[in-house]
Amino acid sequence: MNKAIYLIFLAKSIRTFMFGVISILIPIYLASLNYPVFYVTLGIFFVVLGNVIFNLLLALYESLIGRKNFLIMYSLLMMVAGIILLLSSNLVLISIALFIGNISVTGTETGPFQSVEVGVIPKLVKNPGRVLGVYNLLGYSFSSLGALSLSLLSHLITNNVTIAKLIYALYIITSILLAAIYKKIVNIEVSSNKVNASLVNVFLNSDVRNLSILFAVDAFGGSLITQSLLALWFYLRYHVSEAYLGIIFSVSSIITAISLIIAPLIAERIGNLRTMVFTHMVSNVFLILIPLMNSLQWSVAFLFLRQSFSQMDVPTRQAFMSQIFNDEERVRVYAITNIFRSISSLPGPILVGLVFTLKLLYLPFLISGTLKLGYDSCVVGYDDYYLNGLIVFRFIMKASP
Q: Backbone phi, then psi, for 146, in 5-degree steps?
């Protein structure tokens, strides 16, 4: 494989390791500072808002600034965010840091780092499906290690604020490493060097528009049960400590990682689209069942069952889109669809904060699972096939299967 692929793999690994720690730490850290639950979820809101804005900048100025320069710039913003988090416990400053930090609060990133990386991988390899599977496998595996490291650290240090300060120092170091790695990547740029003022025209493309709307519905459902919010739910419902939360989400990420290797192999037999839809449907049934259990053990068991299928659509969706759009379009299209995914995710943390305040702890799972099943029923209406070496892509809406 191209050297750039290995550098992308390395960057993905160390970045998601850090995000695996941070996504669990943030809600517990804010709660430890005695901020109300609503303000805790507001912090997660600013994380998602930052992903929206920085994906928009990528979509607009990708050709002018360059993909590599964007990756370096976002890495340096992570460093600034880490410094703020390390030095301040003020909610306003913390919110600014969460906004600029390009943090992922889910196992699946929707930030600008992934928009660039997933967009250029098909340009660098002949079989993007399997490479994207490995890319996502690394993400979930190192996210799992991050969650596990937080659990181990919690056994050594009992003060949550002290743990947070140590993690934020590591976050700064990680951002510097990312900038150094991205500086070595070559052959990922597009040829033109102008501001991309044609985003409206891009969105008028029926494929981009329909996919953006469908992915937005899925993302809104997903925003109600991000890893950070799930950690908060287990904390509120069962009073689970940081140490055990780290173990739960570490095992969860390992299960997810294994499924990501299996997904491209299934897709090679039944197609990317069918793999996306059918595995997603099964996962959403398990999702709805999580809060209906009366014990921590059963809730965790159904979380693990859900994770066995929930992310199989990620590499298959990325491979599916790589078939439809060319090299010059791909990063911009990923950024646009991620913008809509992130925008639709914005209300999620705040709504969950209000619902948790009302003690309706089961409701986010029910709403999320129902919306995602609705998304699945719409996506199954997309059909792709090959004709004279070109992909013909059409949208079919059916009243019934």
A: -65, -45
Residues 6+ apart with CB under 8 A from 399: none
How is residue 343 written in tokens?
Answer: 């925008």
Q: How many CA atoms lie within 13 A of 243 on its CB side?
A: 8
Report the distance separating Cα 195 and Cα 392, nearest Å: 30
pLDDT in tens, 34-66: 888 888 888 888 988 898 899 888 888 888 888
Q: CA Rg, the chain, in Å?
A: 20
- DSSP 8-state class, residue 225: T
Contact indicator for 42, 353 with CB cutoff of 8 Å: yes
d(CA 363, CA 142): 30
Query: What is the separation of C-alpha 236 from the centre of its chain, rounded to a whole number of angstroms?
Result: 23
- What is the C-alpha to C-alpha distance for residues 108 and 338, in angstroms, rounded to an integer? 11
Backbone angles phi, psi at 224, to 5 degrees: -85, -15
The helix/strand/coil state of 156 is helix
Q: Where are the beta strands (DSSP E) in 271-350?
A: none
Token couple for 187: 């052959």
- Phi first, then psi, for residue 289 (nearest 5°) are -80, -20
Residue-wise pLDDT for 256-313, tens only, equals 888 888 888 898 888 887 888 889 999 999 999 999 998 999 999 999 999 999 888 8
**Could you tell me which of 315, 320, 273 has the C-alpha nearest to residue 12?**
315
Partners of 387 in beta bridges: 390
Mean predicted confidence (pLDDT) in 152-164? 82
Instruction: Kindly write down the DSSP assignment for every residue of 235-290, as one continuous string.
Output: HHHH---HHHHHHHHHHHHHHHHHHHHHHHHHHHHH-HHHHHHHHHHHHHHHHHHG
Within 8 A by CB and 6+ apart from 92, the residues are none
Q: In 3-state terms, what secondary structure has residue 393?
A: strand
Render pLDDT for 68-81 as a digit per residue (tens, 0 to 9): 999 999 999 999 99
Residue 100's contacts (CB-CB under 8 Å, 6 or more residues apart) are 50, 77, 78, 80, 81
- pTM for the structure as a whole: 0.75
